[in-house]
């Protein structure tokens, strides 16, 4: 469950960075009242933590279902 949540937050962050890179539009800041707004900073922090968590996915063995 934590892996899926971390992956979802990482995807949200990637989409936001894509929008910033292509259109110079920060969707998180737009929705939550600017980059310095408390909730925006919380979202940025959660996305950063999720990205760090996803690093661990690179080093795990595949959890295949055993028959």
In short:
The chain has one domain (2-59). It is 69% helix and 0% strand.
From the structure above, extract its key features.
67 residues, mainly alpha, 3 helices
**Helix count from the secondary structure assignment:** 3
- Judged by helices, strands and strand pairing, the structural class is mainly alpha
Termini, distance in Å?
22 Å
Number of strands: 0
Q: How would you describe the overall organization of this protein?
A:
- With 67 residues, this protein is mostly helical.
- The protein has one domain.
- Helix content is 69%, strand content 0%.
- Helix 1 crosses helix 3.
- It is elongated and about 40 Å long.
- The mean pLDDT is 91.
């Amino acid at each position: 469950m934590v892996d899926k949540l971390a992956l979802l937050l990482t995807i949200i962050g990637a989409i936001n960075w894509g929008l910033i890179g292509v259109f110079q539009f920060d969707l998180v800041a737009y929705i939550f009242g600017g980059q310095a707004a408390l909730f925006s900073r919380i979202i940025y922090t959660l996305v950063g933590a999720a990205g760090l968590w996803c690093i661990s996915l690179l080093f795990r063995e595949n959890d295949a279902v055993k028959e």
